[in-house]
Task: inverse folding
């Protein structure tokens, strides 16, 4: 298993990737939008009446085929890139990362609740740590910095409460 | 050629795929596929996320600024995230709490 790269090398590489996104597309990188596209289509399939009554969901449904959505394709790329990165560094294996004092079931329950909170919050803020904080930060969007400040404060407070899960 | 190009259709999707692969590959190589490293910031034990994120923001912002100053990039054509201050503060807080709980 090879060691991780220097965070500064990774940061420079990511900065040029983000710059390339702005130059080629006119917008930055993201993540949560892809999950919103999938969630809207799930609601459209499971509860079509309810989905059609919600203009926000309809906006996603009218965007067309899932595989023609830029953000969906980009996130598929992220998964593939992460997979190649882990495999080529000898890090690819099944494991559940957690602190020493938490059981697997509780860790997964925390992941589910945390994931649901992240998904919900990404729609409230119109973005996540990728699409809003990182991409918005690079174009000095005021909302990105407000988001990042609130993210840090809540992260530190919550982390202290759930420290048993990770440390 | 004027920048940004604003790719559409299949070329845009192929660019999205390539940019995504680079994004995912770099995050993994930096160790950001590990939730213990990601949450390490909140215990003041591992600052990888901050180092990667702020280096990336600085490089991209400097690049955009320099190319705009040189007249290569039309900065008005770049999509800037609109400001909705309270939703972004509340969303950031809920997302931060979820991130610290779930690890991503």
Result:
């Amino acid at each position: 298993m090879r060691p991780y790269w220097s965070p500064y090398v990774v940061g420079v590489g990511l900065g040029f990737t983000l710059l390339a996104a702005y130059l080629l597309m006119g917008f930055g990188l993201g993540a949560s939008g892809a999950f919103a596209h999938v969630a809207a289509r799930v609601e459209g399939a499971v509860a079509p009446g309810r989905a059609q009554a919600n203009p926000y969901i309809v906006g996603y449904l009218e965007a067309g085929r899932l595989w023609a959505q830029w953000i969906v394709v980009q996130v598929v790329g992220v998964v593939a890139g992460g997979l190649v990165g882990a495999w080529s560094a000898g890090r690819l294996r099944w494991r559940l990362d957690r602190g020493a004092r938490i059981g697997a079931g509780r860790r997964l329950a925390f992941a589910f609740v945390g994931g649901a909170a992240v998904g919900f919050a990404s729609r409230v803020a119109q973005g996540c740590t990728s699409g809003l904080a990182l991409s918005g930060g690079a174009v000095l969007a005021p909302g990105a910095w407000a988001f990042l400040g609130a993210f840090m404060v809540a992260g530190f407070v919550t982390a202290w409460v759930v420290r048993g899960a990770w440390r | 050629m004027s920048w940004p190009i604003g790719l559409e259709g299949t070329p845009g999707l192929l660019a999205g795929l390539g940019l995504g692969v680079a994004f995912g590959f770099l995050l993994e190589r930096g160790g950001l596929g590990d939730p213990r490293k990601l949450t390490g910031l909140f215990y003041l034990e591992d600052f990888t996320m901050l180092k990667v994120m702020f280096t990336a923001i600085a490089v991209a912002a400097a690049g955009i600024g320099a190319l705009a100053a040189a007249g290569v990039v039309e900065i008005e054509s770049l999509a800037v995230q609109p400001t909705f201050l309270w939703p972004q503060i509340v969303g950031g807080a809920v997302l931060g709490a979820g991130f610290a709980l779930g690890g991503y």
Chain B touches chain A through 78 residues (CB under 8 Å). The helical segments of chain B are 9-29, 35-40, 48-69, 85-102.
